[in-house]
Specification:
The chain is mainly beta and 286 residues long. Helix content is 7%, strand content 38%.
Length: 286
């Protein structure tokens, strides 16, 4: 899955780790409630070879063989394609290709308050994900429960590169996705409280992502686990795990996401009292 940026702010941010962390918290809430934020996802549509209408969005969609991306045909005016070259209004009845979603968050289709992306876990199958800025999951979200910054949760580990282009089957919150593979560049050895852990990380674009569970998971933090984005480092190099920036995955904001779950070796004994805990909601806003 392509993740929205959840790493620490790197430019035009306040000075000092606590201030940077506070700015990150504000940015995270803006991200998850944005046009393609996690809270805005309202449905997904598997895409196959048969041309299919998308409920509420005036397009039909289909795939051609093993081509990358999804063919789309607008059925009404007002549908726009957003990609790296800009914004293009689609002509009704004309076939175009919506490419696979990239780490840059493009390409997209927009129509009114609705947005679509074409998502594929590993390129073998595709689904369209439909977002709505007026979704109930956006309206009811009042914040993200998050620990205050604590420097004791800034850990240093060592990155150990694996085989080039290595992939491994992964478990997902959506059972039908379990077994799809993730690119696994290597492992991180690190001491967490009294545990010497060897943690698997997967690649998300150029970044590394750690999916972990701990003693708080399911009690005071989101289950089945939380994520941490890391900058890549060379084999054998030190790597910083600032768990103050651990974040709730997209499936913690919308049930329509399918998220990777922590493998057994990424389940920590310690209670990680750092980072985001869970989404805060007020049903009265529905």
């Amino acid at each position: 899955m392509t993740l929205s940026s959840a790493s620490a702010p790197t430019s035009a941010t306040p000075q000092g780790p606590a201030a940077i962390h506070a700015a990150w918290r504000a940015e995270r809430l803006a991200q998850v409630t944005g046009r393609t934020g996690a809270a805005a996802l309202i449905s997904y549509v598997p895409v196959g070879a048969t041309e299919t209408a998308v409920d509420g969005f005036p397009v039909t969609v289909w795939r051609v063989g093993e081509e990358e991306g999804v063919h789309v045909r607008a059925t009404d005016p007002g549908v726009a394609l957003l990609d790296a070259s800009g914004r293009t209004e689609l002509t009704p009845g004309v076939d175009t290709v919506l490419g696979r979603l990239t780490p840059a968050g493009l390409p997209l289709l927009e129509y009114g308050t609705l947005t679509i992306d074409a998502f594929s876990l590993d390129g073998t199958d595709y689904e369209l994900r439909l977002y709505d800025t007026e979704a109930g999951t956006v309206r009811t979200l009042t914040g993200i429960d998050t620990h205050d910054f604590d420097p004791t949760w800034v850990l240093t580990g060592t990155f150990h590169a694996g085989e080039p282009d290595a992939r491994m089957p992964w478990g997902f919150t959506r059972a039908s996705d379990t077994g799809h593979t993730k690119a696994v560049p290597g492992t991180i050895t690190v001491r967490v409280d009294d545990q010497d852990a060897e943690l698997l990380v997967f690649a998300d674009g150029p970044a590394l992502v750690l999916v972990f569970a701990d003693a708080t998971t399911g009690a005071t933090s989101y289950a089945p686990g939380r994520f941490l984005r890391l900058d890549p480092v060379p084999d054998g190099a030190a790597i910083t795990l600032d768990l103050n920036f651990a974040f709730v995955p997209p499936c913690g904001f919308s049930d329509f996401f399918s998220c990777p779950i922590p493998p057994a070796q990424n389940r920590l004994r310690a209670a990680v009292l750092a980072g985001e805990k869970r989404a805060l909601r007020d049903p009265a806003n529905a």
